[in-house]
Design a protein that fits this description.
Blueprint lengths: L2 H18 L4 E4 L2 E4 H16 L5 H8 L17 H26 L3 H11 L8 H25 L5 H14 L2 H8 L10 H8 L3
Antiparallel strand pairs: 1-2
Helix pairs in contact: 1-2, 1-4, 2-6, 3-5, 4-5, 5-6, 6-7, 7-9
Amino acid sequence: MSQQQSIFDKAMAMIDAANSEDPNHEVDKGKEWPKELLYSQRMSDMLQRYASDADDTMKLAIRAQHIRRWESRRDAYPMDRIGYLQWRKGLYQFHAQTAADLLVQAGYGEDVIDRVKQAVAKKKIKENPDTQLLEDVADLVFIEHYMPEFVNKHPEYDEEKWLDIIRKTWKKMSGQAQQFALSGGIRLPEPLIPLIQKAVSKG
């Protein structure tokens, strides 16, 4: 095993160990998972399906996107729109720094760490290819795995509200990711297919 492969394996194991400590759990296919560990596995799976040629740096960034997310609590900020935006901004920085600290321990240098931090902190979407790739994968995972649950949590939202949410998600994705989603690259939530098609229709 090369030294580079050894460092990569160590870093991935450290990210997984960190996410394994999530006290929140979710059941998938009959198996109970720490919530963020399951999310990270879904992110890596989607990266392999969507961009199998991604390099090790992006594999690390994708795996670490929600690292220790439960430690940055939404209720630590005001429960309004401004508080939500403050929480999201702080969350990106928290994930980026937490991932960077683990990569230092694993033995990575500044070049890899800086790329991971930029992507995980969602810096310059549409300009930075790393950030756009991470955004694409996160949006594809959201549509395939989490959108139905999100719908169930918000029965008060009407159709226009859902069309707006889907369009905002769609707008963040690259053209390549949009095409991937519509051409069978992901499993669209069946009850939501008409709504998704309506939201992204050009007509």
